[in-house]
Amino acid sequence: MAAKSRKDVIHKRMHKRKNKLKKEKAEKVKKIVKDGAHDQRKRKIRTKPRFKRPVTFRPPRTPKYPRKTITKGNALDNFKIIKYPLTTESAMKKIEDTNTLVFIVDTKANKNTIKVAVNKLYDIKAAKVNTLIRAQDGQKKAYVKLAADYDALDVANKIGII
């Protein structure tokens, strides 16, 4: 028997590989013809006439740069909250009679922030804060009732109202 050339050996291997691929392809087609091309899934029974779109995943935003260059700081600090103390006759009467100081404050300030600002600025403890917005000019007025261990007259002298 004559020795097979290298070319013949390679040709035979290639032929075997092609046949194997053809066979695999034929098996796939056979399976599709037998079972069907698509999976048979049961449809969901609709009980309502309206169709609501399913909720899908929405990833959090990852911006390439900040949209605002400067971050906004606290708009109301203690000095902006309390504008000035009132020195009218009725305010002086409140100081003497009910141990209460009267301030004009920022309209955005609430009772808690006013209480904290008075505490920080004048080193006094407020027992209660009442506020109102004046009709004539739209400014907010705060009546700060001091705690029992503080005297409004002394505080008013320290501030410079009297």
Note the main attributes of this structure.
162 residues; alpha+beta; 40% helix
Helical segment count: 5
Oligomer state equals single chain
Rg measurement, Å: 43 Å
**Unreliable segments of 5+ consecutive residues:** none
What order do the strands of the largest sheet run in, or round the barrel if closed?
A: 1-2-4-3
What is the β-strand count? 4
* Overall SS class: alpha+beta
Characterise this structure.
The chain has 162 residues and is an alpha+beta fold. 40% of the residues lie in helices and 15% in strands. The chain has a 4-stranded antiparallel sheet.
Quick recap:
The protein is built from five helices and four strands. It is α+β, with helices and mostly antiparallel strands and 162 residues long.
Q: Layout of helices and strands, plus pairs?
A:
Elements lengths: L5 H30 L42 H4 E4 L3 H10 L1 E6 L5 H12 L3 E8 L6 E7 L5 H8 L3
Antiparallel strand pairs: 1-2, 2-4, 3-4
